[in-house]
Design brief:
Chain lengths: 144, 284, 624
């Protein structure tokens, strides 16, 4: 694989969007940055700007109001991009699935590449999801 | 211009950005170790730039690509000037031109964060430029010439005659590396301030080029700092390394200041120290 | 032939102006102004081809001419006194009386000085001023044609006042040319006072209360300058019985002699160049129509002030007076750059920045070494082109949108692209290497090595200037991008702007060669191998950058833009976002002017007092 393709695998910059989470998954996501888990080992950086992000990590359920924002942020990210739905709510809507103002999981609005189950999801699982997603990206890049 | 100068210039053109990338890598590893983390691989900045280069994204403004390229050309030119032993003051002005292009490009952007970053970038420019200029003037006074070779040819380390420059130079390094407490217009990796400040609207290939320009800038700044102990090549590398390490330590133990505080307290203090040193040189 | 060229340069504008006044018709006026531009260009090039030279044209050296000059020393102050009495303006009355008294003293108490050996001496410095006046001045006069038409339509005047306006405008150019060339101090004073008169008439042209106040402020300050000039001349006459400028600026003459005349002449130059604390007249001149402020600031009036200082520089080199003058210039450079940064009025930014750059030139004169002086002359020429360009652009944009506030000029690039981009280029030419202004600043900084305080002041001023101009350029380029629609612009408007743009950039690039031309032969050889020799290679780099940049611009200007990042909120139109309740909210933006640090109200008095103290030291140092 060329240097440019390798570097796409080795430098996933991650944007974290809290759709409507109870903050449980958010705390676990940010825990990945701490010395205990240290995701920077994989070249992962938590960025705040979709224009710089490669991976979108979404926690929480989607409702009509934040669906717009989620779509907007997703569309502002450069290609190729990955989406990771974190936690039961992000995957399917969780216990809020049937609530009248909830549309459901993240995949109701944007395509999701990796689902991370758990309530809240464990940091190990989130890291594993990013690595899985990168494997998927690697496959795409190799095929192209 | 003789052939040796030409070779040196070419070497500066190619090696300086590479060296700057390595400095960025060292920065990230050392920062991680200071926080008892493992940190990314040493070559991580190169992967980042490679990745950014291969991303496809619509520009935020028609003008940004232009200003990014100009900033890159100016930054590389300032490296080449130093490598070829040209006038350090002119090298500084060329480097300042690069910073101006980045700010103008951010003004052209569409995001409010980008514009806010541009305003703050200007105040940063205002804060560090006089300090850096006076520092260069002090060095020139001691070494008796404005060209880089006479700076590097001094028998005795400039540090002994210019002790009061240290805070000023450290201030410049912190601002140029975008480190706390002066990461006001844009924060370096891992941190966020007004999203990404001046860099918010730059993305994809433009941002990769801007990152290379930043590396080149860092090399210029550290290089000029290393003139403080320029008795041999090794001592210069060690001096630059010490400045870098000091900046990293300060970055890890301090919180961000506001631009007002920087402009009203820190910059004047550094400038007064540097000026005092300059006056002292003239008194002697 | 030479005398004919000089005649064209000095007298033709006056004749053409009078013809404008008599013939009244707009068509004839346009033809006359264009003809004057052409005549001045031919004359200036003709003179340039012969320089350096000395000449004795009859209309500047004959007995009659000298009598006219002597009479003028009474007539001008008398006119000022009359106007002062009519308006009961105490300061004007006071200083014009002082001028009259000095003139009377000169005629009655001092023996008549022998006439100068040659009435005209043209060297690099005079030539620089001549070329600036003839080219930049002519472009501005041409720009004034459509501008004044528009201006008068806007004011709904019944009777056009343009004939008188163009008489003064054109005559002004002639007087400036005379000032650049004359070698006799009495003739010099005649032209000096004539420019004071012209500026008074031009600033007050609109006849509003504000214009009148500004005009009288300019008058009293310049009368004060006239007092300094006249007393300097009389003292020099008393000391050496000489009125020959080229004989006076011989350093050997002044060893052991009192420097007071030189200090007074330099002080007159500082007043004319609106140095702190006399800056207020130049700021007041902003109320005048744009061509006037462009003419006063970029090419003429203020350049007369720095011209005297540069003329005196051989005497100043290495003296206490010279060192203090260096400090005065450097301090003004710093102080007015700070004031410019706190301004949102675009014309005031230009005015303060002009004063700052004049301060830099005066600092160069204070250093007085050939290297510094040639840097000063390079700055003089390139500043005229660049600032003239910026004034024309701001004037044009002001007429387009009806405001001169920088905040209102935001995003002008989408409203009138040509003018706005020319203004951006002008702003960049003020600060970017390898263009002339920056190179001049750099040369001045290295030449000021004798005075650490001046160097620090210059470093501060330089940083302040960079920030000010980057913000200026950025503001014009930012804002909402509406589909650019080409506004109808008169060829007479865009032609001078583009010509000034070409000369600003072209001269900026030619700075090293200009510099080498100006230096004495001994140092000229080393000039292009030293620091200035760096410039050609930087041009190559700049050209490379230009090509790369333009290629990318061509590619990107066709691209569809991404939506802005506004915290993830969607945006339908640029500069707005869809927020709560599904409503579209408009984003507003503004620059931070940091008025708590750089505000006019806060700084002017304090800095003015410091600058005043420095000027007192200039005179005091000469007396001691």
């Amino acid at each position: 694989m060329s240097f440019l393709k390798t570097s796409q695998i080795k430098s996933p910059w991650l944007m974290h969007f809290d759709c409507g989470s109870c903050n449980g998954c958010d705390i676990e996501t940010l825990a990945c940055l701490t010395p205990v888990y240290d995701v920077e080992r994989f070249g992962i950086i938590n960025v705040g700007n979709p224009r710089h992000a490669d991976v979108l990590v979404v926690t929480g359920t989607v409702n009509p109001r934040n669906a717009e924002i989620l779509k907007n942020i997703y569309s502002q990210m450069p290609d190729p991009k990955l989406v990771i739905a974190v936690g039961a709510c992000g995957c399917s809507g969780g216990v809020f699935r049937e609530a009248p103002n909830v549309l459901g999981g993240v995949d109701k609005v944007i395509p999701v590449d990796v689902y991370v189950p758990g309530c809240p999801a464990k940091p190990e699982a989130i890291m594993d999801a990013v690595v899985t997603g990168l494997g998927k990206l690697k496959g795409i890049l190799e095929a192209s | 211009m003789n052939l040796t100068t030409f070779y040196l210039a070419v070497a500066g053109l190619i090696l300086a950005p590479l060296l700057g990338g390595l400095v960025a890598g060292v920065d990230r590893v050392v920062t991680a170790r200071l926080q008892s983390r493992m940190g990314p691989p040493l070559l991580q900045p190169f992967y980042d730039v490679g990745k950014l280069w291969s991303k496809i994204i619509a520009p935020a403004s028609h003008w940004q690509g232009l200003f990014v390229r100009w900033a890159l050309v100016a930054s590389l030119a300032s490296d080449v000037l130093l490598a070829a032993g040209a006038d350090v003051l002119m090298c500084f002005f060329v480097q300042a031109a690069s910073a101006s292009f980045v700010a103008v490009g951010a003004f052209c952007g569409s995001s409010p964060y980008s514009k806010l970053g541009a305003q703050r970038e200007l105040f940063q420019l205002l804060a560090y430029e006089p300090v850096f200029l006076v520092a260069i003037l002090c060095m020139a006074k001691v070494s008796g010439g404005f060209d880089a070779y006479s700076f590097m040819a001094s028998q005795q380390p400039l540090l002994f005659k210019l002790p009061l420059l240290i805070p000023g130079l450290l201030f410049v390094v912190l601002v140029k590396l975008r480190k706390s407490p002066f990461d006001i217009s844009a924060s370096h990796h891992m941190h966020q301030e007004v999203v990404r400040g001046v860099y918010t609207d730059y993305a994809g290939r433009d941002f990769a080029l801007l990152e290379i320009a930043h590396w080149a800038d860092v090399v210029v700044v550290l290089w000029i700092c290393s003139f403080m102990w320029a008795t041999s090549a090794l001592s210069m590398v060690i001096t630059a390394g010490l400045f870098l390490f000091a900046a990293l330590v300060i970055d890890n133990i301090s919180a961000r200041l506001t631009w007002r505080h920087m402009l009203k307290v820190v910059a004047p203090a550094c400038l007064i120290l540097a000026t005092a040193n300059l006056l002292w040189l003239y008194m002697e | 032939m030479l005398d004919a060229y000089i005649g064209v340069l000095v007298l033709w504008p006056l004749v053409a102006g009078l013809a404008c006044l008599v013939l009244q018709s707009p068509g004839v006026r346009s033809a006359l102004v264009l003809a004057t531009g052409a005549a001045l260009a031919v004359g200036a090039l003709g003179v340039a081809s012969q320089a350096p030279f000395t000449a004795n044209p009859g209309f500047l050296s004959s007995e009659t001419a000298l009598h006219v000059a002597e009479a003028a020393a009474f007539v001008f102050p008398a006119y000022f006194l009359l106007r002062g009495l009519m308006r009961k303006h105490l300061l004007v009355i006071l200083f014009s009386c002082a001028q009259l008294a000095l003139a009377a003293f000169g005629v009655t108490q001092l023996p008549a000085a022998p006439a100068a050996q040659s009435a005209v001496v043209c060297d690099g410095l005079s030539l620089a001023l001549l070329l600036v006046v003839s080219f930049a001045g002519s472009f501005i006069c041409i720009f004034a044609l459509p501008y004044m038409k528009h201006h008068e339509e806007h004011l709904h005047l019944k009777v056009s006042r343009q004939p008188g306006f163009f008489l003064v405008l054109l005559a002004f150019l002639g007087f400036m040319n005379g000032l650049a060339l004359s070698n006799d101090l009495r003739m010099f004073e005649l032209f000096f006072e004539a420019t004071t008169l012209c500026s008074f008439l031009l600033i007050g042209h609109d006849n509003t209360e504000e214009a009148k106040t500004s005009a009288f402020r300019a008058l009293w300050i310049n009368c004060l300058g006239g007092v300094f000039l006249h007393s300097g001349i009389l003292l020099a006459q008393k000391q050496f019985n000489l009125v020959d400028i080229s004989a006076l600026v011989n350093p050997a003459l002044w060893t052991g002699a009192s420097m007071l005349p030189i200090a007074l002449l330099a002080l007159a130059g500082c007043v004319k160049a609106a140095q702190m604390p006399f800056q207020s007249w130049l700021l007041g001149a902003m109320v005048a129509p744009t061509p006037v402020s462009a003419l006063l600031h970029s090419s003429t009036m203020v350049k007369a002030g720095v011209f005297i200082c540069l003329r005196l520089s051989p005497v100043l080199q290495g003296t206490v007076t010279g060192k203090i003058l260096l400090l005065v210039g450097a301090f003004t450079f710093f102080a007015t750059s700070a004031l410019a940064l706190g301004q949102s009025n675009a014309k005031k930014i230009l005015a303060y920045s002009t004063i700052a750059n004049l301060g830099l030139i005066i600092a160069c004169a204070g250093i007085g070494t050939p290297v510094a002086v040639s840097a000063g002359i390079v700055l003089l020429v390139i500043h005229a082109a660049t600032k003239g360009l910026l004034f024309l652009c701001v004037g044009d944009m002001e007429q387009t949108i009806g405001s001169r506030d920088l905040e209102d000029l935001r995003g002008m690039v989408s409203k009138s692209p040509v003018t706005a981009l020319a203004a951006v280029a002008g702003a960049m030419a003020m600060i970017l290497p390898p263009l002339g202004m920056l190179v001049g600043k750099w040369a001045a900084l290295e030449a000021a090595a004798q005075s650490p305080v001046a160097m620090v002041l210059m470093a501060l001023g330089s940083a302040l200037g960079v920030v000010c101009w980057v913000r200026f350029a950025g503001t014009l380029l930012s804002g909402k991008a509406i589909k650019p629609k080409a506004s109808p612009t008169s060829a007479l408007t865009s032609m001078p702007i583009l010509a000034m743009l070409a000369s600003a950039v072209g001269l900026g690039m030619a700075a090293p060669w200009l510099n080498a031309l100006l230096l004495p032969e001994a140092s000229a050889a080393s000039a292009l191998s030293g620091g200035w020799g760096l410039m050609p290679s930087l041009f190559v780099v700049a050209m490379l950058g230009w090509i790369i940049g333009m290629k990318v611009l061509g590619r990107q200007s066709a691209a569809t833009l991404s939506t802005p990042y506004i915290g993830g909120l969607p945006s339908v139109e640029k500069g707005t976002y869809v927020g709560p309740l599904g409503r579209t909210w408009v984003l507003s933006e503004g620059n931070e002017y940091a008025t708590e640090l750089f505000g006019e109200a806060k700084l002017t008095k304090f800095l003015g007092a410091l600058a005043g103290a420095l000027l007192l030291a200039l005179v005091g140092g000469a007396i001691i």
